[in-house]
UniProtKB/TrEMBL annotation:
<feature type="domain" description="Type II secretion system protein GspF">
    <location>
        <begin position="142"/>
        <end position="264"/>
    </location>
</feature>
<keyword id="KW-1133">Transmembrane helix</keyword>
<keyword id="KW-0472">Membrane</keyword>
<dbReference type="InterPro" id="IPR042094">
    <property type="entry name" value="T2SS_GspF_sf"/>
</dbReference>
<dbReference type="Pfam" id="PF00482">
    <property type="entry name" value="T2SSF"/>
</dbReference>
<keyword id="KW-0812">Transmembrane</keyword>
<feature type="transmembrane region" description="Helical">
    <location>
        <begin position="6"/>
        <end position="30"/>
    </location>
</feature>
<keyword id="KW-1003">Cell membrane</keyword>
<feature type="transmembrane region" description="Helical">
    <location>
        <begin position="281"/>
        <end position="301"/>
    </location>
</feature>
<feature type="transmembrane region" description="Helical">
    <location>
        <begin position="79"/>
        <end position="100"/>
    </location>
</feature>
<feature type="transmembrane region" description="Helical">
    <location>
        <begin position="106"/>
        <end position="123"/>
    </location>
</feature>
<feature type="transmembrane region" description="Helical">
    <location>
        <begin position="244"/>
        <end position="269"/>
    </location>
</feature>
<protein>
    <submittedName>
        <fullName>Type II secretion system F family protein</fullName>
    </submittedName>
</protein>
<dbReference type="InterPro" id="IPR018076">
    <property type="entry name" value="T2SS_GspF_dom"/>
</dbReference>
Length: 309
């Protein structure tokens, strides 16, 4: 049985992407092992860096690399910036080749841009999910801090206890805050850095309470217990709102997926129909308007379903 050429290209692109991902993780593990070994020798870190490590550092020094590294760290994706960019480039190239087999090449370029937006949308989705998970842990965090301060412990020790007791992502983020406090960073700066990594209204209120109590004093235990009960109520409200609005979002994505599947079915029933359509001005206008309407519907539904609780 003859395998279609686009299917072969798709399999090759997927295989190449998985290989880049695996090599990136393998190289990251080797690099971490070498850095751990080299810590015993002063000044040997620079010599132990591999070529890939130097390239990753060079990418991180750029404006785009810094922003992307910050977003990857906030999303919890443990992947070097260079590996992420490599996967994005491979995905864009595969989109150009595959889409170019079905319709006009100009739509292949548009698909490559769309692949880049999909990668960034995935990172943003991971950021939002991690932020939601952290917000869900805030009531428990407030209770742990309240119990620790009620026992007479200082805030630095209370944060270290919370970092040990809470699961990720709260445990991981609090460990960073505890490390910053351990090396001498002021409490307000370390907590505000936590808010910058995971911006949310709930965390801002908790951090403001901790900073004000540390500066001016007051009944911190009572304030933390009140915040814990309030955050628990807000968590339940947010869960109900997200459940109610989830149907509209899923319906919108389902309609878009069915539209793309319909185009593929047309091309399967009548091979070459999409290419003939996309090479004419009328067909290009129709496809362009359909894509713009789909993107506009996504933005509108996202705006409608975004409710601040």
């Amino acid at each position: 049985m003859n395998v279609p050429y686009p299917v072969i290209l798709l399999l090759l692109a997927v295989t190449l992407a998985v290989a880049i991902w695996g090599l990136g993780d393998l190289a990251a593990g080797w690099g971490q092992r070498r850095r751990l070994v080299a810590r015993s020798v002063l000044g040997s870190d620079a010599r132990m860096l591999t070529l890939r490590g130097r390239f990753d550092i060079a990418v991180r020094r750029t404006g785009v690399g810094k922003a992307l590294a910050r977003r990857l760290a906030a999303s919890g994706i443990r992947m070097p910036v260079s590996t992420f960019l490599g996967l994005m480039i491979v995905g864009g190239a595969a989109a150009i080749v595959l889409i170019g087999q079905w319709i006009a090449p100009v739509f292949g370029l548009a698909a490559a841009v769309g692949v880049g937006f999909l990668f960034l949308a995935y990172v943003r989705r991971r950021e939002d999910r991690r932020r939601e998970e952290f917000i869900a842990q805030l009531p428990e965090l407030a209770r742990v801090l309240s119990n620790a301060t009620h026992a007479g412990l200082v805030m630095r020790t209370a944060i270290e206890i919370a970092a040990d007791e809470l699961a990720d992502p709260a445990g991981e983020e609090l460990k960073r805050t505890a490390d910053a406090l351990r090396i001498g960073q002021p409490l307000d700066e370390a907590l505000r850095a936590l808010v910058e990594r995971l911006p949310s209204r709930e965390l801002g209120v908790l951090v403001s309470t901790l900073v004000v109590s540390a500066r001016a004093g007051g009944s911190l235990v009572t304030a933390l217990r009140t915040i814990a009960s309030t955050l628990e109520e807000r968590k339940e409200t947010r869960r109900e709102v997200r459940t109610i609005m989830g149907e509209a979002v899923v319906t919108n994505w389902a309609v878009g997926a069915l539209s793309v599947a319909g185009l593929g079915l047309i091309n399967l029933l009548q091979p070459g129909a999409l290419r003939v359509m996309s090479e004419r001005l009328v067909g290009q206008v129709i496809l362009g308007v359909a894509a713009l309407l789909f993107v506009a519907s996504l933005l509108i539904i996202r705006r409608i379903t975004r409710i601040d609780v």
